[in-house]
Amino acid sequence: MQLDAKIPGGPISDKWDWHRFELKLVNPANKRKFEIIVIGTGLAGGSATASLAELGYHVKTFCIQDSPRRAHSIAAQGGINAAKNYQNDGDSIWRLFHDTIKGGDFRAREANVYRLAQLSTHIIDHCVAQGIPFARDYGGLLANRSFGGAQVSRTFYARGQTGQQLLLGAYGALMRQVADGMVELFPRREMMDLVVVNGKARGIIVRNLFTGELESHAADAVVLASGGYGNIYYLSTNAESSNVGACFRAYKQGAAFANPCFTQIHPTCIPHTGEHQSKLTLMSESLRNDGRVWVPRNPGDIREPKDIAEADRLYFLEEKYPSFGNLVPRDVASRNAKAQCDAGRGVGLTRCAVYLDFNDAIQRDGMDVITRKYGNLFEMYERITDESPYETPMMIYPASHYTMGGIWVDYNLMSTIPGLFVLGEANFSDHGANRLGASALMQGLADGYFIIPYTIGGYFAGTSLERVSGDQEEFRDATKAAEDKVKKIMSIQGKRTVDNFFRQLGQIMWEHCGMSRNEGDLKKAQRLVQELREEFWQDVLVPGSDKDYNKSLEKATRLADRLEFAEAMLLDALTRKESCGGHFREEYQTEEGEAKRDDDNFCYVSVWEYDGEGKMPKFHKEPLNFENVELTQRSYK
Amino acid sequence: MKKLPKTMNLTLKVWRQKGPKDKGHFESILAKNISVHMSFLEMLDTVNEQLTFEGKDTIAFDNDCREGICGMCGAVINGRAHGPEKATTICQLHMRKFSDGDTIAIEPFRAKAFKVVKDLVVDRSNFDKIIQTGGYISVNTGGAPDANAIPIPQEIAEKAMDAAACIGCGACVAACPSASAMLFVSAKVSQLALLPQGRPEAAKRALRMVKMMDACGFGNCSNHRECENACPKEISIVNIARMNREFFKASFFSSEK
Q1: Do residue B139 and residue A130 have CB atoms under 8 angstroms apart?
Q2: Is the same domain home to B71 and B168?
Q3: Rounded to a whole number, what is the distance in Å from the CA of A614 to chain B's nearest CA?
Q4: What is the mean pLDDT of residues A323-339?
Q5: Are residues B102 and B129 in the same domain?
Q6: What three-state secondary structure class fits A193?
Q7: Residue A591 above 90 pLDDT?
Q8: What part of A 344-373 touches B (C-beta under 8 Å)?
Q9: B201 and B96 in one domain?
Q10: What mean pLDDT value characterizes chain A?
């Protein structure tokens, strides 16, 4: 496999303009002759569907949920970045580009990130035109707030529901195209396989989740926007149906996967309370502005927090990072919380939590100020935990919530399979080893509204595509394989439920390939995952029928993919012998215990190519060249 | 330290219905050792694990984000859409709101326009159909003016946001004695009618969305206000009044049909 990122020449600020000019166009009258499949209706898939249909392409769009409006982009709270410089505080496209590269710990592609920063301003214009009720100042102009990793105020927001509002905007645009007959919508469908004909992506096999029926859909190109794989850990802030399946099927069909070990663990989530727990809820990072993080100094101290005297408390972030204190970046805060819990100082029911205490802030600023700042968050916390943060410290623990790794794509967002485009969280392109807050929404919409409409035209205009139909051999074979998989799962009738296996996989990955990793643990996890996978295929118990709405079966098919994908993650984590962003290898740290990057040996994208059942995937490198940003070490002391 | 986890035993009266054509019935299921820390859906997960081991068909229910924003989950708990807790979807409703020994009735959102698919799962695609007739501003990607070109008073933007918070779960329909979708439809009509960007299509939008709402078989508003009481996002019926104004204005003064 030859990796060609197809990065245009010229100065970084002109690359996208030149490239758009150089891309061949499809005649407006010919666009209607092309059919495009889009998988997923989140910000990336929803916006891509709408924009492509507006251009005149015929689009078939698929989602797992009952309506495109429910994709998990809806849960994003904080906001969306754009280099508008409305606050006159020194922001620019260049600065947003620079912050994103640095925040990603220098493991992202410069040209892609620069384009993202350029497009950020168009996104806000478009979303306002769509009627998205962004927060505004008294004068009626758009309001901004600041977010982690930036010194300027560039985040646009709609209360704590920015993702919801942006998604409903894309959903509205999509529905308008459905009404116009340009988009055919297929809800409650799960992609079971990608169909490749003569080396090009030409269709998909989906399972109707109500009837169990397998359907073949052929097209001229396939756009994958199926999100990330953050719930490989079982517990995460992802939705239940978020899964790696569609991307993993594409990987097995030949699309290379990049940096699977780059996962982001968010430090402030509500901790789990027991085995029944199905998901974790994020609490805004802004709480660390006023809350003090601590644990009992003595391991095993189970007294109520109010009974623990000041001298018996360990404010571990403040002690270790005197200048940044509780405001160290996400990855550092997360790793330190884990270290305290591992040392036996964890609090709460499961001993897997640390305190986030507002008592000092309330004493200092008064109840009113704290309520105004955090009232809604405190309410949400109380609804879930039945404890009031006004009276007793909050308990928090890190949780998985985003994955930077994904299907490898070139500058056109096309994977190594011609005709397969990958957008949003599903691709690897823009966030390097760590994503900054408020950048996920920006990337999803940039990909969908402003990149794919151009690059897919370039592909169509420069490629000859023969006619394919959903009943030809390749589709029949893929359907048969999907059918066999479902039949096999249904036939096992073992003794362990799907959730039981899933919880165990999550635990293995969380403990060995989560916030901190080392060679011994990763190798052990490889063995454990393999054993678990063998056991799954012998002992899983799926009730009900495969011709009916069957949640257990849905979960089982997804888990089967996760059990294989986990190995790719572990292998990638083993191979990257450096620490960067969310990937912390214990062997590679500074004397102070911080992440130690190795730019001489690892300044590249790790790209994995599937090489057949049971075989080690082939390893490729895409070197990263930094011509516009200087490589520096991050420091928070 | 923390209180120890308390568990309880409950009797569930769950609506079981194999498919849209099945008549359906209530089934009694014992839910044992339910932790007070579980959400309502986690309680159902636990019961389903138990049913799986007993070789019985599990209870079908929809859910996704489990943090109260996707709008996928929903059921009528003891006669109330989304259960007893105000402004809370059932994925955020916790079992500590119930007591040991309680009997809990669990039914799907019932309405002529929401067909039951299986057990607690209903087909809400009629909501999508209504949105298709006008729940958007017709703007193509690419031509938008600068985002700050049109200032919008903060108060108006806030009102638009109040309406836009709707998660499309359908609790308003389930709670309404006439199974009306007026709260849902009015939330979208209001959001877009309030904003200057939405004015050019305001008349057409109100007429078309209301027409489709009727065609889908939803009832009309009868001022019981059950919808806003059940709404997990506390959408106000002020929006219905605003939609009515838009609708009448459009009917009398607009050339739109």
Answers
A1: yes
A2: no
A3: 32
A4: 86
A5: no
A6: strand
A7: no
A8: 347-349
A9: no
A10: 95
